[in-house]
Specification:
single chain, 6 helices
Length: about 110
């Protein structure tokens, strides 16, 4: 199992990363009224960044970490996106976070 400090560090990371998808260009244009989301789910992008960021640190639990982030609002099973599209969605230019290091450096 994980030591207490490891659990606290993991939870801190998940708290920081859970909304990183809101920093994407498309979401920023949405909140400024310039664009409609039309199926875009910030939590899917957040899950991708969580997976990529924590994989070297958390290994086998990383998938659970990413799923936790992905499901933090409401179920995505009825979303337009299928699980296999997660990485492709996050690679779209308008889904990119300007500089995710700024968010994880907190």
């Amino acid at each position: 199992g994980l030591e207490r400090q490891q659990v606290e560090d993991l939870m801190r990371s998940l708290i920081i990363l859970h909304d990183v998808g809101k920093a994407s260009r498309i979401y920023q244009r949405y909140i400024s009224g310039e664009e409609r989301l039309e199926g875009f789910r910030h939590e899917l992008v957040s899950a991708h960044y969580t997976y990529e960021s924590l994989l070297p640190l958390d290994g086998e639990l990383t998938e659970i970490d990413a799923l936790t982030v992905m499901m933090h609002h409401e179920p995505t099973h009825d979303s337009e996106h299928k699980a296999g599209e997660l990485s492709e969605l996050a690679k779209r230019p308008d889904s990119q976070v300007t500089d995710p290091r700024e968010l994880v450096a907190l």
